Amino acid sequence: MKRRGWTVLLGAVFVALLTWQSLSVKVAYVALGPGPTVDTLGSVDTKDGEQRIITASPDHSTESTGELQLVTVRVYDEVELARAIFYWLSDEYAVVPRELIYPSDQTDEQIAQQQTEQWTQSQSSAETAALRVLGQPVRVVVTQITPGSAADGVLEAGDVITAVDGSPVTSAQNLAAQIATQPPGTEREITFTRDGKSEKAKATPGDGGQGSAFLGVSLEQQQDNPYDVKINTAGLDIGGPSAGLMFALGIIDRVDPADLTGGLNIAGTGEIDDDGVVGPIGGVAEKVIAAKDNGATVFLTPEANCPAAKGNVPDGLTLVKVGTLDEALSALSALREGKQPPLC
């Protein structure tokens, strides 16, 4: 081979090596893709064998013919440039800066702990919201009074706060929100139950800092659970808050004799608070794909997530818009009756 031929060949090999090396370099991005789905009405494998995810006492437990799937997002970390390009070109994945998923000011252990705490809280709020629908209201009970505060001399430990200025108090969070609607120094009427008797008293919340009104009470939420509802997620490797809505629906369906699913495979997502308000979550574009891949025909979508979900919805999947647990239940009722629920 002539010298020029060797030069071209060696140059081509050198370029190929450089290209391969550059494509193998890990980038500061992660990929988000469709993750596994879990039927909250189904079972999970645990160290003690297969167990139901949501259970109730035998006297109250019912069965349904469909599914209520929670959906997840799988995170692909330590992505090479070549794979990042593949994910970026795919309609099923999103490529985002790693900093958005793994903030540099937190350790991996701290992030994992936060995900676990959110996961646990989502189940607690789901149970609270579901039991309220099932006829078990929340009692907001005073456990301690801050000396010198607005509540000092007005409320006592053991009082159950039922209203502020005539508006019902439905949770500790709701009470804080109602107190915050007026600036510090505004007189408020507090309705409470003491020793089984309803009473009313005036209190003027002070400044709790940064201009927020401070009543001066420590609270505990109490709620009856006559159905002995329990959520068992020991066999699930999932974190974050986004399964709240589907857990709440699963609890109601486990206890309510009516089959909420109507035989349909229904998926959904959304954070939920104690009052049943459904909040937006991340990764909804990938979650709708996961739902469709696992046979769902309906996807319950937090209202704020509708624009992102609509941009990636697969054929055959109906996006139902929900803002509260009550709206989700109304939407499922409409589907069972053959009517069209509110759509994204």
TrEMBL record:
Domain (Lon proteolytic) ranges: 237-335
Alphabetized PROSITE patterns for the sequence: LON_PROTEOLYTIC (PS51786), PDZ (PS50106)
Matching InterPro entries: Lon_proteolytic, Lon_Prtase, PDZ, PDZ_sf, Ribosomal_Su5_D2-typ_SF, Ribsml_uS5_D2-typ_fold_subgr
Pfam families (UniProt xref): Lon_C (PF05362), PDZ_2 (PF13180)
Active site feature: S242, K287
GO molecular function: ATP binding; ATP-dependent peptidase activity; serine-type endopeptidase activity
Occurrences of domain PDZ (ranges): 140-196
Record's catalysed reaction(s): Hydrolysis of proteins in presence of ATP
Entry annotated with the keyword Transmembrane helix: no
Keyword tRNA-binding annotated: no
UniProtKB keywords: Hydrolase, Protease, Serine protease
Gene Ontology terms: biological process: protein catabolic process; proteolysis
Enzyme Commission no: 3.4.21.53
Similarity-based family: Belongs to the peptidase S16 family.
Name of the protein described by the UniProt record: endopeptidase La
Protein source organism: Phytomonospora endophytica
